[in-house]
Amino acid sequence: MAISYKPTRMEMSRLKKRLVTATRGHKLMKDKRDETVRRFITFVRRNGELRERVEKLMGEAMASFVLAKAAMSTAAVEEALIVPAASAKVEVGSGKVLSTEVPRLTYVPSGSRSLPYGALGTGSELDSAVVKFAELMPLLIELAEVEKTCNLLADEIEKTRRRVNALEYVMIPQLETAIHDISMKLDENERGNLTRLMKTKDMLKAKEE
Predict the structure, then answer these.
(1) pLDDT bucket at 177, cuts 50 / 70 / 90
(2) CA 6 to chain centre
(3) Beta bridge partners of 110
(4) In whole angstroms, what is the distance from residue 201 CA to residue 13 CA?
(5) What is the DSSP-derived secondary structure letter of residue 175?
(6) What is the CATH number of domain 9-202?
(7) How far apart (Å, rounded) are the C-alpha atoms in residues 156 and 35?
(8) Cβ atoms 160, 29 nearer than 8 A
(9) pTM for this one?
(10) What is the CB neighbour count within 10 angstroms for residue 158?
(11) pLDDT value of residue 131
(12) What spatial distance separates the first Cα and last Cα of the chain, rounded to whole Å?
């Protein structure tokens, strides 16, 4: 949408102030975009590390569990795992990455960390599987937090990029063009007034002669 204006000095002064504000805003938005991208890259790297650890630990836990089921009957496995050894909760909060609100998830274990069954009738494979699954839980919670943060930052980067482009390629050029047009129009009016003044002066001089 083009900027509407009147070719007056007051209007040109107003547009110049808008141009200064838009230019300053453009710089601030670019700085914000660059810093958000830097933070985003940090979270993406952390996300990759967590996902790699989770997938590796999940594979090891599943392999131990498969071995435990092969060495024990299904009923024995279900009986051993029917009662949980400990409970846990996830505290949900929020934080800020620059101006973007992001989730904060905190895994809070409670109760005993011992195995939920006795040693009699179970094998080391089941012990290994239970321990690895217990190690997985806080990693999964952190992974969920980091992935959601990455998504929110990606959305914020895209919004900021659109604003930067709107200022850089639309608003600022339109303001500069409007200021230039008003300046040219004022100069033209000034030259016209000067020409009329000189003609009037010549006419008065001729009349006196």
Answers:
(1) very high
(2) 40
(3) 87
(4) 32
(5) H
(6) 1.10.287.3240
(7) 11
(8) yes
(9) 0.77
(10) 11
(11) 81
(12) 57
The answer to whether 18 touches 3, Cβ cutoff 8 Å, is no
Alpha carbon distance 43, 51 (integer Å): 12
CA–CA separation, 192 and 197 (whole Å): 9
Give the pLDDT of residue 198.
79
Q: What is the mean pLDDT of residues 11-22?
A: 93
pLDDT tens per residue, range 30-64: 999 999 999 999 999 999 999 999 999 999 988 88
pLDDT of residue 1: 58
CA atoms of 174 and 183, how far apart (whole Å): 14
Would you say 160 and 31 are in contact if contact means Cβ atoms under 8 Å apart? no
Question: What stretch of H or E contains 26?
Answer: helix 9-71
**Which helix (H) or strand (E) is 120 found in, with range?**
none
Q: How many residues does this entry show for the chain? A: 209
- Average pLDDT of the segment spanning 127-147: 88
Q: Which 3 state secondary structure label does DSSP give 89?
A: strand
* pLDDT of the residue at 150: 96
Is residue 145 within 8 Å of 104, Cβ to Cβ? yes
The three-class DSSP label of residue 21 is helix
CA atoms of 90 and 113, how far apart (whole Å):
17
Give the model's pLDDT for residue 114: 62
Let me know: does 73 contact 135? Beta carbons within 8 Å.
no
Closest CA relative to residue 36, chosen from 168, 167, 152, 165: 152
What is residue 97's three-state secondary structure?
strand
Largest Cα–Cα distance in the chain?
Answer: 132
